[in-house]
Every structure is written in structure tokens, then in C-alpha cells.
Amino acid sequence: MAIKRLPLFFFLSFVLLSATLCLGYERDPEREKLEQCRLQFQQQARSKGEQRECEQRCQKQYEEQHGQKEEEKGRREDPREDPRVKLEKCRRQCQQQAQSREKQRECEQRCQQKYEERQQGRGNRQEEERNNPYYFSSQSFQTVIRNQEGQVLALPKFTKKSDLLRHIERYRLGVCEANPHAFVIPHHLDSETILFVVQGRGTITLVKQNKRESFNIERGDVLKVDAGTTMYVINRDSNERVRTVSVAQSQNVPGDTKIYFGAGGENPETFYKTFSDEVLEAAFNTPSDRLQKLFGKQTQGAAVKATEEQIKALTQHAQSSKGGKSKGEGPFNLLQSRPVHSNKFGQFFEVTPNDCKDLQDLDSSVSFVKINQGGMMAPFFNSKSTKIVYVVEGNGCFEMACPHVASQSQGSQTRKGVTESTSYKKLYAHLSRGDALVIPAGHPVTFIADQNQNLQLVSFGINAQNNKRNFLAGQENVLNQLEKEAKELSFNTRAEEVEEIFKNQKDSYFVAGPKEFEEREEKGGRGQRLSSILDFAAF
Q1: Predicted pLDDT of residue 158
Q2: What is the spatial distance between Cα 401 and Cα 28, in angstroms, rounded to a whole number?
Q3: How far apart are CA 322 and CA 218, in angstroms?
Q4: I want to staple 521 with a disulfide (CB 3.0 to 4.6 A). Which of 79, 493, 499, 500 is the partner?
Q5: H-helix or E-strand containing 49?
Q6: Taking a C-beta distance cutoff of 8 angstroms, is the pair 194, 366 a contact?
Q7: What is the DSSP annotation of 263-312?
Q8: By three-state DSSP, how is residue 16 classified?
Q9: CA dihedral defined by 513, 428, 172, 461, rounded to 10 degrees?
């Protein structure tokens, strides 16, 4: 009999599968196994009671496997997807997969509960970011110049965000983008500038009195531009934008960097038009009507389209950047240098004032961090350098311990005339491309990459000479150097226990990130009070 029933079993399975596909449902292998299990026991059961018992076992096995699958899928979901979209997806799955109206209602209630938790978590996270004086979302950048061929963006003065940033009020962070074959008109800044090439291939020309130099630039190049240097940029590529990020140190009004266009006309406006006709006639030895025509023709904006012939002429004498660190002038490629540290969780590149003469003058450093997906940079602090950080690519988050924000919110607490011990505020923000943040000296901080994306950061160090990076977890944990007695007295526990904990982490610089990162993103980091450096997951 079993041999005769076998074709019927395959036929019914095929009909079931075809109907599912025709109705537009998503293919569910676990559900198909459930139907096959039921059909198989229908053929083999010797009584109705035995058949019901077998079908119940099939249903229980399906629910267990399906629940595990949904849980795993939830962990893989993009935590930044709109919760309302997730809610609708969840409801559709309930409608498609529920065995009864009651099961569907229960499923939809779970969807609604999860949606409300996400909304609450999102609100908590946004509130944390708003109250974080050191974090700037990509929306914080203001447009300085924009047309169809490119744009220049800049963060507002740091002191507009918080007085806690007044020690870097002379600095501004900016981003410049030039479309394929765009030519950025000659200009100069009243600021000393360090730029890092984030994307693309271009040529930058620097003009000083009786001297002109052109350099080809590409991703990873670092270049210092002196204040007052006339410069112009051309995008040599036919498809990709040139994108640079820079830190400018203003020489006049603190934090008020200005762009001056000599070349130009109506748009961008040339500063020549500010002078009187008599002065211009005398300066150029040319009638004013001709000068007015010259200074009135350009109306296309600060970036214009160049032809192939013009690009070839402008780039034919350009020098290529030097690989690795450089003690001379001109750009050098940081990403072609040997990393300071590299392991399976990330890479760290850095150039300091000791490595580059150009950076000595500004007492600055430039570093590039790549944290592989699911990894994190072990908690650390800088001894004296403040870091201005820009998110180049990817997603993740950062956490930082800050005593200044804590003292502002709580005020000074005293008991019997004695100041209480220092308390810390945990500052947290989700990071995505185009965001920026400031890491003050001495502040313990960690960066965590998302589970499914690498996180890439470029950092400009202020007051960088003789700065030391002090790690607080991993093989290079600075606290490993404490004497046994110092550990016992500091942590009020046996030194052996302290040392065992400190030695658990075998990696340096970059370590495996917290497995619950995506869930913490959805819940907004609730309940994660950073009362001690030991709370960091790197341990």
C-alpha cells in the first residue's frame, strides 16, 4: 500500500507548493516541511488519535524551528529601517503564516509590542544624541557653496554647539565635493588647512608668489595648504566624485574661515569688484569698461565643467603623491603607509608631527581607522590631543565617558564640605556616513562597527605633539602596569581577580564587538549606564 500511496504524497506536495507560489507568499522551507510531515503521517497513521498526535508533533517542531528562524532574522535586520515599515512587514508575515485567527492576533500583538519598543528606543537614542555636545549629525553641516558641479559644506563654529568646545574654537571642519570633470575656480582661504582625500581622483594646484605646483590626489592622500595659498582643483575622473574632508585653523576671527575668489565674476563674486574703478584701472593699466566685462562674465558658480582637452592640459605636469609618510612638502598617502596596528577586527593608520614636517607647523596629526563589521576599537583615551572625527563610510556607534557633561547636569555635589567622587555621563550616538564628533583629551571612548558594515573614520588631532594613546582594555591596557598592591587597593578586590579579568582579552587596539549591538541599537541603549570603565564590553 505504501508504494501505491507514494505518488499521491508527491502530487499533494507539488500542489501545495505551487499554490503557495501562485498566491505570492514568500517561500517558507519550514512550512513546507510541516506540510510534508503532516502528509507523511496521514499515510502512515493507524488511527485518528495517532494521526492527531503525529500532527501535533509536526506543528510543535515547526513552531520551534520557525521561531528560531524569526529570531535569527530579527538579529540580521537593519536597525535603521523605519519601525513602521518593519511593523507592516511583521503583520503581513502574520497573515501569511498564522494557522488560525487566534494565532494571527497573537502574532500581530507581538508585532505591535516590538514596534512600540523600537519607537521608545529610537526616542531615547535621539534624545541622547541631542544632548551630546560632542556629536554632529550629517545634517549639521551648512552649505557654503553649491551648484550642479559640486558643493562645499562646513560645520558651524564649535562654540555654537557648546562652550565645552571653546578650546577648539579656531577650527572648522569642512567637506568639498566636485563632480566628474568639474573644475573648482581658483580661491584662497584665510586659514591653515589640512585635507584628507576621502574619495576619487583629482589634481590640485597650489599657487604662491612666483611658484606653482600641481599634484595628483587620490583616496588616502593628506595635504597641508598654507593660509593665503591660491588653489584650484579638477576632478580627473569621468564617473566618480572627488570628496575631501578638511580641518581649517582660522588666522583672523576664531572659527570664521572665509573663501576669497580672485578669479570669477558675478558668480562666484570676485573680490576685484569691491575696488573702485580708478584703483582697478591704475592696478591693471586697463580701461575700466574692459575690466567690468572681464569681471562680469563668470556666472556659472564656483565649480564649472571642463572639457577633456582642458583637463589634459591642467594635469599634464602634475606630480603624484608619495606613498607612505613624508617629511617633505606635497601630499602623501596615509593608506599606503604601514598601519600602526592591524588585526582581523580592524586597521589603524596615523601620521604625527614627528612623521611629517608640514604637520609640525600646526601641531596636528591625521589618523584613519577601519573597524571591520562586528568589531570595535578597544576603549582608550588620548593624553593631550583633542580629535575631530569624520565618518567616511559605514555605520556603527560610539560611547564616551564625560565628567564635564555630568557635572553640568548634576552640579557640584558636596557632603560635609567634602567634594564627592567624580561621576561620568555616558555619551552615545549612532554613527553613519557624513557624521562628525569631537573627542576631547583624557576622555575614555570606544567605537563599534555595525554587525553588517565596516566603519571607517578619519581623525584630525589638535595639540598632537607628544600625544600618547592609552588603551584601557586588551593586551596594551595601561592598567596592566599597576603593581599588585595598587590593583588591590584600587578595585578593593584580590589582585589575582583583577589580573584575570584584564588578561581575558587577548587582542589589542581592535577586538570583537558586543554581540548584542543591534539589539541595543533598537532599544536605544537603555540601561547601559557607564559608571565604571569595567562596563565596557572589551573586557
Answers
A1: 94
A2: 46
A3: 11
A4: 79
A5: helix 48-76
A6: yes
A7: S-BTTTBPGGGGS-HHHHHHHHTS-HHHHHHHTTS--S-SEEE--HHHHH
A8: helix
A9: -40
Gap between the Cα atoms of 220 and 200, Å rounded: 10
Backbone torsions φ then ψ of 391, nearest 5 degrees: -85, 115
Say how far apart CA 43 and CA 53 lie, in whole Å: 14
DSSP three-state, residue 99: coil
193-195-201 Cα angle (round to 5): 140
Cell of 484: 599588585
Q: Nine-digit cell at 1?
A: 500500500
Alpha-carbon gap, residue 206 to 57, rounded angstroms: 77
The three cell numbers of residue 193 are 588647512
CA distance 494 to 501: 11
Check if the beta carbon of residue 391 is closer than 8 Å to that of residue 435: yes
Q: Is 27 helix (H, G, I), strand (E, B) or coil?
A: coil
Inter-residue contact 245 to 193 (CB < 8 Å): no
Contacts of 348 (CB under 8 A, 6+ apart): 339, 340, 341, 342, 367, 368, 369, 377, 509, 510
CA–CA gap between residue 408 and residue 127 (Å, rounded):
17
Residue 207 burial (CB < 10 Å; 0-12/13-18/19+)? middle
Map grid coordinates 594635469 to a residue: 315
What interhelical angle do 29-44 and 48-76 show, nearest 10?
A: 170
Within 13 Å and on the Cβ side, how many CA atoms surround 177? Answer: 14
Q: What is the distance between the alpha carbons of residues 446 and 426, in angstroms, rounded to a whole number?
A: 11
Rounded Cα gap, residues 270 and 261, in angstroms: 5
**Measured CA angle at 213 (ends 209, 218), to 5 deg:** 140
Q: Check: pTM over 0.85? Answer yes or no.
A: no
Cβ atoms of 223 and 215 closer than 8 Å: yes
List the grid coordinates of 318.
Answer: 602634475
- Count CB neighbours of 164 within 10 A: 17
> Which residues on neighbouring strands pair with residue 206, listed in sequence order?
213, 231
| Angle at the Cα of 430 from the Cα atoms of 425 and 432, rounded to 5 degrees | 145
User: How far, in Å, CA of 430 to CA of 137, rounded?
Assistant: 9
DSSP letter at 161?
H
User: Does 268 sit behind a cis peptide bond, omega within 30 degrees of 0 on the bond before it?
Assistant: yes
pLDDT at 530 (0 to 100): 36
The grid cell for 218 is 587620490
Whole-number Å distance between alpha carbons of 353 and 40: 75
512: Cα separation from own chain's centroid:
18
Contact 454, 393 (CB under 8 A): yes
The proportion of the chain whose per-residue pLDDT surpasses 70, expressed as a percent, equals 76
